[in-house]
Amino acid sequence: MKPKFGLLFLILLLVIATAACSATAALRDSRIDAPPTAEPTATVTPAPITEDPAGYARAFYRAWETGDYLGMYSLLTPTSQGVVDSASFIQRYEEAMRTAAVSEIHAQPLGVLREGDRADFGVRVTLTSDIVGDLVREYSTRLAYEGGRWGIVWDEGLILPELSGGNRLTLEARVPSRGNIYDVEGQALAYQGSAYELAVIPGRIEDEPGLLAALSQALGQTPDTIKEKYASALPEWYVPVGIVAEQELQQDALALEPYLDKGLATPRRRTMRLYSDTNSAAHVIGYMGSISPEQLADYQAQGFTGDEMVGIAGLEAWGEDYLNGDRGGILSVVDPAGQVIDVVADRDPQPARSIYTTLDLDFQAAVEQALADAIATHPAANYGAVVVLDPNNGAVRALATYPTYDPKAFDPLRPDSAQAISALLNDPNQPLLNRATQGAYPAGSTFKLVTYAAALNSGLYTPDSRYTSTGSWNRLGDEFTKYDWLSGGHGTVSLRTALVVSCNSCFYDVGYTIDGMDNTLLPRIAKEFGLGQPTGIQGIAESAGLIPDPEWKINTIGEGWATGDAVNMAIGQGYVQVTPLQMANIAAAIANGGTLYRPTLVDRIGESPTAAAEMPPPVVNGTLPLSAEQLAQVRESLWNVTHAPNGTATHRFVGLPVSVAGKTGTAEAPPGLPHAWFVGYAPAEPFTTADGRVVEAPELAIAVILENAGEGSDVAAPLFRRVVELYYGIEPTPFPWGG
Length: 739
Hints:
Layout: H1 6-33, H2 53-65, H3 69-74, H4 78-83, H5 86-99, E1 102-115, E2 118-129, E3 133-146, E4 149-152, E5 168-174, E6 181-182, E7 188-200, H6 208-219, H7 223-230, E8 239-245, H8 246-256, E9 268-275, H9 282-285, E10 287-290, H10 293-301, E11 309-313, H11 314-318, H12 320-323, E12 328-334, E13 340-347, E14 355-357, H13 361-377, E15 384-389, E16 396-402, H14 417-426, H15 448-458, E17 466-469, E18 472-473, E19 482-483, E20 491-494, H16 495-501, H17 504-517, H18 521-528, H19 550-556, H20 563-570, H21 580-592, E21 595-597, E22 602-605, E23 620-623, H22 628-643, E24 661-667, E25 675-682, E26 687-688, E27 694-695, E28 700-706, H23 712-728
Parallel strand pairs: 6-14
Antiparallel strand pairs: 1-2, 2-3, 3-4, 5-12, 6-7, 7-8, 7-9, 10-11, 12-13, 14-22, 15-16, 15-28, 17-20, 18-19, 21-23, 24-25, 25-28, 26-27
Helix pairs in contact: 6-7, 6-8, 13-23, 15-17, 15-18, 16-22, 17-20
């Protein structure tokens, strides 16, 4: 903390010193000018002390409350300052406050007793510690009038009475076990568990092939990888080669037992962060790591030593205050020889609280596997993401991104942690990027939902407004001619049908026309759909995406807005950037009647002995700019996309017992193939599940993107279908490309 009272007191000293000098000079001058006399000089009586010692004492304790130790030091008597220098004084206070994890100091004056040039100031001080609670002490602080001012007569007992005579504080922290992260049903996604470190002593190996085979089975590493870890070690070195969970070690105990003390060291047990068997939801859970230098002081103020593991990303970081619990400890006094002579405070730790997510572990794992299978088997796809929301409240049911990573890599106690982290950070495939929330892509034809709404809001269009598609469009000039995806065009279609067949030229024309009326309308409607801004999902990083408008373009690019910008934007191209999470949220709002909920990953915070369970209510981000009638017409068009003979994805959902509604998107992404999109919801009409449950309203809103994979109807729609099948327990349909 910065000193606040030191300068103030120095000014006060200057004023007092000046006055004293003036008085001394006046007295000297009066003696020089007085005529000599033979009469004996009268005894001079010292002037009475008129200053209030309580003001100095109050300033001393106010400085302590604000951490202004230098200001406190300036208020000591000269004699006390001669006994302790400022650096030692400050060090003693900082050390004591840090050791006791004091976060707040409050001083309550009780009164002052004065006798001549001595005074005693009574004060009650409360030191609030995040570890051991409040430490309340009453002090009788001595003051003395020296050098023309009052000052504090200081000794170490003014920090705490127990510290008189050079004693020190020591803290033995009591750390609660870290809380777990569960799925919505209580299956563990991340939890504290026992694990064992396996290590070899190279010089004692008797049967290297056998030992390597047993370790390979237990650790899931190749024999060559394990051997490389101790290849350059000295014979008697203890070389860790891997960590294995206690339950897993039990399965391999018999295979490892023959090698104990014959190259295999006795396994060392320790507590570590463990994860589900499938390592699911890595980007949601996040990972733990060492406290950063920037955060060290804040953590130490809470009683951390600084070498603990804390949440760094994902829900591990978001929920740190819940997952860490409240630390307890024993605060003791030790004498200069280091012997404990007293216990100042003793408080038990408060248990951590677990976080229950909205995810279903089995469904999450299945969606991740479906995404991985689709990419592994498709000839062009390399990356992708799937988001599944509950349209009725914004709860995330699954969030998958590919490629993913193993959060255990960030455990610094793992033998190969440094190499694993380096590999992740330098991987050109960017496995740490959460493409579901951080991936920003052109929306392609899925953006036509926004353009459709802008057309209706403009007052220039109705759902039945007609447009004749000839296969090309040139209102920007022949040199800027644009083409439909369907050669020869779609003929004369209504606006609502243009959505079904995804007629580009119709939406080019809409963008051109409404931009001529108001060039801010289309961007404004897009933002009312939740685009161009974060959704507010808690716990994980997300991109805001980008919705360009005239102000943005002049400020960012230095160019004025052109009608061509609106034309490109009308089909989700140009500068438009959206995330899969944002598009799933739009699908959810269409499914539920127009409400844009804030997506949420936290279903509830578990209870503890001192706190009840917390269930955060749904949060509404906004409402789609469509009337109920207009929204019904949009839903009809999306149903036709997957059911009508001219629907762009009808052929992909033949035979699916659950009706779905959605929109295809094929977003140009040169120099590669287009990004394949499909966004929608299910069921689109009442549906009875295999176990007899009747589903009256949509339960799933889904966004699928496969980067540079081709047409949305060819690639993204089949994966969308697979996600619906997985949720309802329907036999999966093979991917059309053979996956």
